[in-house]
User: Which sequence fits this backbone?
């Protein structure tokens, strides 16, 4: 049950400080008693698991409180953005199970209004066109401990600034030659308030507006006005924007509220106008995982991974291709919660959420990853025994499947040992083991290859043991197997952590590359999969019994590929995909 629905005695406080704030705001009638959030990605890369936290927070808060959540692309930097990223982001959000309110929004569709608001600030003497070069501007900005220096253009006549701003827009100046800056306070202890840049010249074409503009507004200037235009009530962002909040408020409070209201009514006539408020929360960080699009982009561009959706990537596209489910990611985000303090979440928590969902919902099949041939010597050559096995050990309603047993089968190489360690319960020469869902067999003879390694086992079946205990002895081990005649050859990819260190905090792209786990991928060709599994309608997510959870990779030339989503238990050990 959702926290807010729970009115029973002893009802819990809604979890998390943002949920509590929203409940308080609704009760006091703040923002007209509405909740309207937005998720504002910049389309400069694919979404990662950190973004999922923000998506879940924004969409769930709206959902729980009868509000709305917009999807708005914060697309003010045409040099790094693209339509490919826009499409991928929309796709990822739908896949996670969320639906945005109305049309997709773009900050770029507010460029006309943003331009008019900038003219308003100039007219009021609150902004000016500055001719300091980017290098000079950096020098003039001052340091964390020392104040900045005022630009010589700071007191330019507003009419002159208006004229220059118009000519900037008309394309009369080169990149970096002029900029529009807010006139706030060069001595402010908060560097963000030292006359921040509102507009830059960039002769670049934009994925939404084409060649219409050669000046582009900055993130800080755009974000607050876009929120106001969309009547956003709670503007939630991550902690690094805390020091930008005074600027967020400065811009909104220095514009005419009636002009903001008019701009908002033009776009969103159904939502009454409010001044949005920004609240910050801690970014999600996960051990052995690196987020940060700059670094992820470098991995993709330099071919260190197989694209943004490489199953080892912390992107939602990668996790999807690996077989993570939307429900498990949502459950994980809920379990992590939303706090003000940063912390490193154990990757085990994410893996737990994945296993929990997959264990409950995934049908079981058998697949032998590294086959060893077994001949059942007393099983007739042409006989096919059709066994019935449950699809799920705990959920009868999921039904059963037919598994053929034939004279020649494969078992896992590691399920036979010449030199069994203490406690080894599987097959040894002269020993017995049960074939999962079938008979107990005894290994009578080991045939070897030229190097002396086991190549083929000759075993006899005890036909009295189907669904029954063997008489007079105990057989502890149960192993998986697949009929050699009926099994399907597939390729399996095993994944391990992409990064070696527990807390990767690279400063440069080179450092990212140094961090890569060289054994993060192992590909096994010639695995043998239970027949039926590849049939139309069989699904694409399975537990390979005793091996792990697997997800069928997208269609490609060659054998069908299964990606290992996750092992059954956390027993493979860090560092290698084997
Ligand atoms: P990155 O630093 O990884 O490149 P970003 O913050 O630049 O990410 P945006 O596209 O600007 O990426 O982010 C969209 C939204 O997602 C923002 O509100 C941002 O605060 C939020 N977000 C980004 N990373 C995380 C994270 N690790 N945890 C929670 N929210 C995040
Ligand atoms: Mg960013």
Assistant:
């Amino acid at each position: 049950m959702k926290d807010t629905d729970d009115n029973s005695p002893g009802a819990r406080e809604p979890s998390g400080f943002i949920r509590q704030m929203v409940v308080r705001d609704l009760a006091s009638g703040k923002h007209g008693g509405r909740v309207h959030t937005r998720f504002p990605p910049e389309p400069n890369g694919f979404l990662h698991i950190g973004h999922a936290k923000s998506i879940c927070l924004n969409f769930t808060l709206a959902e729980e409180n009868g509000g709305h959540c917009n999807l708005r692309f914060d697309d003010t930097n045409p040099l790094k953005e693209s339509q490919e990223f826009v499409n991928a982001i929309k796709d990822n959000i739908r896949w996670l199970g969320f639906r945005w309110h109305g049309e997709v929004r773009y900050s770029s569709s507010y460029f006309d209004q943003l331009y008019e608001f900038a003219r308003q600030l100039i007219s009021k003497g609150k902004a000016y066109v500055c001719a300091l070069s980017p290098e000079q501007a950096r020098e003039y900005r001052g340091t964390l401990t020392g104040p900045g220096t005022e630009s010589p253009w700071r007191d330019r006549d507003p009419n002159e600034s208006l004229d220059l701003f118009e000519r900037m827009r008309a394309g009369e100046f080169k990149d970096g030659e002029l900029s529009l800056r807010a006139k706030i306070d060069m001595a402010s202890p908060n560097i963000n308030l030292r006359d921040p840049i509102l507009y830059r010249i960039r002769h670049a074409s934009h994925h939404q507006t084409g060649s219409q503009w050669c000046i582009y507004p900055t993130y800080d200037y755009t974000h607050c006005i876009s929120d106001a235009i969309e009547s956003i009530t709670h503007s939630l962002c991550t902690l690094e924007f805390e020091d930008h909040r005074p600027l967020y408020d400065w811009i909104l409070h220095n514009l005419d509220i009636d002009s903001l209201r008019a701009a908002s009514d033009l776009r969103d006539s159904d939502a009454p106008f409010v001044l949005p408020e920004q609240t910050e929360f801690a970014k999600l960080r996960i051990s052995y995982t690196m987020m940060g699009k700059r670094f992820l982009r470098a991995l993709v561009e330099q071919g260190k991974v197989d694209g943004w959706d490489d199953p080892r990537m912390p992107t939602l596209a990668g996790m999807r291709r690996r077989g993570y489910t939307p429900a498990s990611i949502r459950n994980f985000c809920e379990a992590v919660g939303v706090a003000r303090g940063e912390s490193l979440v154990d990757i085990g928590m994410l893996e737990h959420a994945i296993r929990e969902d997959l264990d409950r919902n995934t049908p079981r099949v058998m697949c032998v990853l590294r086959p060893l041939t077994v001949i059942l010597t007393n099983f007739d050559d042409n006989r096919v025994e059709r066994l019935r096995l449950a699809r799920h050990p705990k959920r009868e309603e999921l039904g059963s499947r037919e598994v053929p047993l034939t004279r020649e089968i494969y078992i896992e190489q590691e399920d036979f040992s010449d030199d069994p360690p203490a406690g080894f319960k599987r097959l040894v020469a002269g020993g017995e083991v049960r074939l999962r869902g079938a008979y107990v067999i005894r290994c009578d003879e080991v045939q070897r290859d030229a190097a002396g390694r086991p190549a083929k086992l000759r075993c006899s079946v005890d036909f009295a043991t189907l669904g029954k205990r063997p008489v007079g002895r105990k057989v502890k081990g149960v192993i998986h197997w697949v009929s050699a005649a009926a099994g399907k050859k597939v390729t399996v990819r095993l994944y391990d952590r992409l990064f070696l260190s527990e807390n990767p905090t690279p400063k440069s792209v080179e450092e990212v590359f140094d961090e890569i786990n060289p054994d993060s991928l192992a590909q096994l060709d010639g695995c043998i999969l239970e027949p039926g599994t590849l049939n139309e309608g069989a699904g694409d997510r399975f537990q390979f019994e005793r091996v792990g959870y697997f997800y069928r990779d997208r269609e490609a030339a060659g054998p069908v590929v299964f990606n290992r989503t996750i092992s059954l238990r956390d027993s493979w050990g860090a560092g290698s995909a084997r």
